[in-house]
Sequence to fold (346 residues):
Amino acid sequence: MIQITVNGTKEVHEHVVSLGDVLKTRDITVETSQGVAVALNDRIVRRTEWTSTPIETGATVEIVTARQGG
Amino acid sequence: MQTKTSLPGQVDECGDWLRIGHLKLKSRLLLGTSGYPSPHVMLESLAASASQLVTVAIRRINLADHGEESFLDLLQSLPIELLPNTAGCYTAREAVLVAEMAREALETNLIKLEVIGDDETLMPDVEQLLKAASELIRSGFTVMAYTSDDPITCRKLSDMGCAAVMPLASPIGSGMGIVNPYNLELIRTLLPETTLIVDAGIGTASDATRAMELGYDGILLNTAVSKAKHPVQMAAAMRNAVIAGRMARLAGRIPQRFYAQASSSMEGRIEVTSKE
Fold:
């Protein structure tokens, strides 16, 4: 069991090993992630590396997309 | 006699392109997507503006509602390029990370770089801006840098290789128009080869025209359209204003003078000899 922060909200996860596992709980996969980007601990993680990137307790995940802006 | 297609200043017709990185744009108006009364009005405004380069922000997805994806879908259905920004960033580190996330999300090297000093003025933090611009250029980004109307900073941004240098006309969202035309003119004179875009502070169509008449290559605006009483109409006005300003610049204005000069010749004027 690990405790992580996703988009500013603390979460507890069981059975997650990789960043890809965490994203999958949000239905975000490489195939469904057009327009989405992810950072782990303030570093960008390319989508091709999501499943191979390990995640540990205390990690901070940011998931972003394009929104209205000037 | 010149044909229609060879008329200098036919900015929409004869190859007067705005070039930014790999982009070659007919429209010199860059429009933001924030603050419209509805998505429908935003789309109508984008169409009326004829803008081909449209700004978006990079923000957290709403994990409870994937509605934002439809926003992106809406934009990606249009014949436009997206220009992600780093709005809301206060440090070079934040701005670089947001730019990298924008590149990953939108598959574009374009970035409108903003690094803000505080919430009240939204003025750029020049030290952090220069640092971020340098890092991003090294990482292969096409950097369009929002900055203050300081000629020295603009020159530094240009020298380091920014694809566009974008001094403000006045503070973001203020609608005050061009508060220091002398600085904007000086920047244009000092950097004749640099792509210069006025970004922020445009309030109405004449502000956009004035900036183009000063020799700027384009105008980036958002609030002046999105918060207008009739955004779609204002978008059309801005389109025409930018074209008018560009054409006037290319046409070359007459010199200003203190005294009148009759436009009708006095030669052949009749003489009236009878008294009243």
Observations:
- Residues 1-9 of chain B have pLDDT under 50 and may be disordered.
- Chain B touches chain A at residues 32-36, 42, 55-61, 63, 68-69, 71-72, 75-76, 82, 84-85, 87, 93, 97-98, 100-106, 172, 221-223, 226 (CB under 8 Å).
- The first helix of chain B runs from residue 39 to 49.
